[in-house]
Design a protein that fits this description.
The chain is built from three helices and seven strands, in the order H-E-E-E-E-E-E-E-H-H. The chain has about 170 residues and is an alpha+beta fold. A hairpin with a 2-residue loop joins strand 4 and strand 5. Bound molecules: zinc ion.
């Protein structure tokens, strides 16, 4: 197992749709292990493969009830609204109140190649939406109202300049 550096916005890998996994082989099993290790080290409650520079549709999470993963996840259903202070390991140390569905139901494959569904509200529903966004090339900044997003991007650029990393 290995801990990977986490890619930070605006890295292009975070802004491009990831590819479907066609073969669930040892490389994918190792990737899932590495993603858990990287996520716990960060620490975070969810991680998508593009966040460690691997442009594949693989997501992992642990919202307190153990390790879960989905390969080629798709959102089947969302319902309701919930505003929650949300952050992202790829946009470090920043949180915004973000409105998303309160409930989400998603389907994908597990490492045995079996179809599996997860459904939930609160943190699980939030994480499913956040991580599936990642494999579609969407980061939480895209979920902000435009004016808030533009302010956030300006503030991030200012900080980068003051650190000398344009
Ligand atoms: Zn994220």
């Amino acid at each position: 197992m290995a801990i990977f550096p986490i890619r930070v916005y605006p890295d292009p890998v975070l802004r491009s749709p990831a590819a479907e996994v066609t073969d669930i082989d040892d490389d994918i099993r190792r990737l899932v292990d590495d993603m858990f290790e990287t996520m716990y080290d960060a620490p975070g409650v969810g991680l998508a493969a593009p966040q460690i520079g691997i442009p594949l549709q693989v997501v992992v999470w642990d919202v307190g009830d153990g390790q879960h993963h989905l390969i080629n996840p798709v959102m089947l259903e969302t319902e309701g609204e919930w505003v929650f202070d949300e952050g992202c390991l790829s946009v470090p140390e920043r949180y915004w109140p973000i409105e998303r569905a309160a409930y989400a139901r998603a389907r994908g494959l597990n490492l045995d190649g079996e179809e599996i569904e997860y459904a939930g509200d609160e943190l699980l529903g939030r994480v499913l939406q956040h991580e599936i966004d990642h494999v579609n090339g969407i980061v939480l900044l895209h979920r902000l109202p435009r004016r808030v997003r533009n302010q956030a991007l300006r503030a991030m650029r200012r900080e980068d300049w003051s650190r000398g990393t344009p």
